Amino acid sequence: MRTPKRRPAIPSLLKFVCLLPLVGCGGGEGTPADSGGDLNLASSEGMDEGLPPSILGAAGTPSGQEINYVPGDEISTGHLAVPDGSGPFPALVIVHEWNGLVDRVRQVADDLAAEGYVTLAVDLFDGRVGSSPDENRALVSEVQSNYEKMVANMNAAVAYLRSRPDVTGRVGAMGWCFGGGIALSYGLDGDDHDATAIFYGQLVDDPNRLAALDHEVYGTFARLDQGPSPESVASFEAALRAAEIPNDLHIYDEVNHGFWLHVDQDPDVRSEPALDAWLRLVAYLDRALR
Length: 290
What we know:
Elements: E1 65-67, E2 78-81, E3 89-95, H1 103-114, E4 118-121, H2 133-145, H3 147-163, E5 167-176, H4 178-189, E6 195-199, H5 207-210, E7 217-224, H6 230-242, E8 247-256, H7 267-289
Parallel strand pairs: 3-4, 3-5, 5-6, 6-7, 7-8
Antiparallel strand pairs: 1-2, 2-4
């Protein structure tokens, strides 16, 4: 039987630190800066696997199913993708960007299911999708104003996955931009789970807060980004090290915010770093969840 972690009370100044993206997902330029930390550097040599179709803009109609996973909530509708076979499989909760649960995220869920993970793409915006930066910021602000509702939504997703007979019980959380900050926040304040994977998103640099984590953390970031900046990533890495939390973090040169989920926006520049980040992710999820 799993023993839930005892989590500290959420300090008021840190309660929402991971949630609000500094720039819009899917693009944005920043100023190159030195990372200032000894981040784990990956090599692109020997790559013999391709990128998943979802992040190349080459996926078809999402093939999973829409489900209501929060008890008593018929508005929040997630996208569930299940691997072929009888399992049991490890599981993932994935969190959308600041515009909501769109088909690109559903397609990623389908691709992760093809890798052998029962994957639930959650909906934190009550079924709504933003169509402009102002709408996106308004949706994010609603999550900011009710942090406990967000944690309850994520807890319900993890509980739903663990209740399935085709799930081993090991569950990870993963997200991009707004969703990356949510994944980290949930690692600190949600029910106990087994993996946290962050693609950009707001970070925490307090070792005392990060000590609430009990598993390795994966992070992919861009040097031409200010949300978070390379300096913020270095502070995050130093804080993880001080808290003795294992981590696999990497800042990719020559790319900006949103590069991984949207490789098709600039494939000549983004394909190589995105493939390296994907291979690191596959290896991390294997370590953490299998």
